[in-house]
Amino acid sequence: MSPEPASGQLTPDDVVLRESTPDDTLVLDTFSSHEVRSEHDYYDDDDLGDGHRGASRSGSRVISDAAGAVLGRVTFHQVAYGPNRRSLAWRIGVTVLPEHRGRGVGARAQRILADELFATTDAWRVEADTEVDNVAERRALLAAGFREEGVLRGARWRAGARRDAVMFSRTRSDA
């Protein structure tokens, strides 16, 4: 699968990641709705309560345009591949508001976030996964410089069934 630019593609300066402000609350409150989250990003159970906090670091950034209008949100949390700090990686995710999809917002935001995590931490790896049939996100990750690694069989439980996911990553040596 190769990344294909969409019509109306945004330039790098059109997408900004920033901390949320109180003015963003009304829009951000819609992110838990089925209307905003795609079918691949909507979970019908209550196991989202911990927010990936545990002992790991996590966070989110608002995706906005240069004028400050909210386009979506990126999230990140650490995952461990061993018992030491050097074995920590970052797992990222993205939700783009429906009216801003198909313009490269998700690809650009995920590239910016991965670059930011490499610049501000010593992590070697930034990764993301998506369901196998989420073609738009698979293309966005490839466009953001991620490499497809393989299928995680039955990794997700959503809409009453196990779902396969595809893992993508960028490492410092890819940059």
Walk me through this protein's architecture.
The protein has three helices and seven strands. With 175 residues, the chain is of the alpha+beta class. Helix 2 crosses helix 3 (135-143).
Strand line-up across the major sheet: 1-2-3-4-5-7-6
Shape by Cα distribution: globular
Biggest β-sheet description: 7 strands, mixed
How many separate domains make up the residues? 1
CATH architecture: 3-Layer(aba) Sandwich
Structural class: alpha+beta
List the total number of helices: 3
Task: Report the strand count.
Answer: 7
Query: Using only CA atoms, what is the Rg?
Result: 16 Å
User: How would you state the average pLDDT, rounded?
Assistant: 84
The CATH homologous superfamily is named Gcn5-related N-acetyltransferase (GNAT)
Report how far apart the termini are. Answer: 20 Å
- CATH domain class: Alpha Beta
How large is the share of residues in beta strands? 25-35%
The third-level CATH topology is Aminopeptidase
Sketch the topology as an H/E string, one letter per element. Answer: EHEEEHEHEE
Low-confidence stretches: 1-6, 45-56
> Helix proportion of residues, in percent?
10-25%
